[in-house]
Amino acid sequence: MAIILTSEQQDLKELVKNFMENEIKPHVKKYDESGEFPLELYQKGFELGFHLLEIPEEFGGSGLDHQTMCVVLEEMAKVEPAYGITMLCNSLALECVLISGTKDQIKRFSDKIIPGGFGSFCLTEPNAGSDAASLRTTAVKDGNDYILNGRKCFVTNGQFSDFFVVFATVDKSLRAKGVTGFIVEKGTPGLTIGKHEDKMGLRLSNTTDLALDNVRVPAENLLGQIGDGFKIAMRGLDQGRINNAALSTGLSQGAINEAVKYAKERVQFGKPIIKNQAIQFMLADMDMQTEAGRQLTYNAAKLLDSGIKASREASMAKCFCGDNSVKVTCDTVQIFGGYGYSREYPVEKMYRDSKIFQIFEGTSQIQRMVIANQLL
Ligand code: COS
Asked: Which residues line ligand 1 (CB under 6 A)?
């Protein structure tokens, strides 16, 4: 499938590219070093509406389709993948509301994002990562409310979120069938935001723990029906994994751009190193694999845009692009040689940033399980 962008997509791509180059790139190194969350950089993106791209137009957003989201996220990640992750986690939280929420819920929570708010998707727990159905956060009915108790971890945007899509179980013995989704609003008594993770990469994104201690959630914040939560989370992740693949494709493309530029400038044995076939073949493989990943990503996005289930294709794109980004950024460090290992150059950061793409939103091994399950 050839990826031919419409003129609107081209314009949007150009807008995001210029924004990332001019407004974000100059500050990346500083925030990567400090690990601080650059709220003011995200607020600049909010001014351009980057936080509401996927919110349907009837609820005040731009209503972009999945393919156009891929264009935006790839462009963001060429400069700073954490920028896309922060926006994407808003969308993953909201996507669960869009999938299963009532009109009132969609409106209430879109209204929280639109003025410049954040949302968080809270599935993972200290003892329930890949095996999401084994989660232990409990939900017990009390009158018209539900009482939530438990702990979530690796919550993106945690410290800044206005609402949290929390998955809890009404009966652990039911595994996936007991999992139920709730929207927990910031400031609800018993909800405590824990420590911010000091991460290896994506250091411009905020990642926290979340403790729920007798958190009372009104029935109007229940997502779908009791027991629907696992499927809501998986459907949200089908979309999240495509967005995620677009981000790792952007990261790979950003690394390739750096590698080509450096290989043209760096002279050894009397000629630019790009004249060596060994370097050219590395670059050719990087380019070829990244293009293949891009095709998988747009293919999955196109299926979702057509209303076709794309779990298999989303997992293929997520796995392939995530694995590829680790290889491409590693090879970029190799092309830079000793300078690649130095913090003075941007590529060691790219390598650090890449690793998470094999881990979050389902490890590369989990994606292979999803793909294999379709074969079985
Ligand atoms: N869309 C809709 N429904 C889905 C689905 C999807 N993508 N994937 C699974 N389901 C449904 C299944 O059809 C099944 O429903 P039925 O019982 O009605 O048939 C139900 O959900 C349970 O599915 P399954 O039996 O496959 O669940 P498992 O416990 O075996 O887990 C995996 C499946 C491993 C795929 C799942 O746990 C997973 O994705 N783990 C990784 C979690 C993750 O990505 N965490 C990161 C969070 S963000 S940092």
From this structure: 123-124, 130-133, 154, 176, 230-231, 234-235, 237-238, 311, 360-362, 366, 369-370
pLDDT at position 305, please?
Answer: 96
Distance 364 CA to ligand 1 centre (A): 15
Contact status, residue 336 vs residue 259, Cβ threshold 8 Å: yes
Q: Return the CATH fold of 119-229.
A: Butyryl-CoA Dehydrogenase, subunit A; domain 2 (2.40.110)
Residues of the chain with CATH 1.20.140.10: 237-375
Tell the CATH superfamily of the 7-113 domain. Answer: Acyl-CoA dehydrogenase/oxidase, N-terminal domain (1.10.540.10)
The CATH number assigned to the domain with range 237-375 reads 1.20.140.10
What does pTM read for this prediction?
Answer: 0.96
Distance CA(84)–CA(78), nearest Å, equals 10
Instruction: Tell me the pLDDT band of 1, cut-offs 50, 70 and 90.
Output: confident
* Alpha carbon of 300 to ligand 1 centroid (Å): 18
Which residue out of 123, 230, 371 has the highest number of ligand 1 atoms within 8 Å of its CB and is therefore the one to mutate? Answer: 230
Q: Beta strand pairing status for 179-185 and 163-169?
A: antiparallel
Q: How many other CB atoms are found less than 10 A from the CB of residue 265? A: 10
pLDDT in tens, 190-230: 999 998 999 999 999 999 999 999 999 999 999 999 999 99
pLDDT at 140: 98
Residue 75 annotated among the catalytic residues of the structure: no
Mutate to test the pocket of ligand 1, among 90, 96, 234 (most ligand atoms within 8 A of CB): 234
Residue 60 CB burial class (10 angstroms; 0-12, 13-18, ≥19): middle
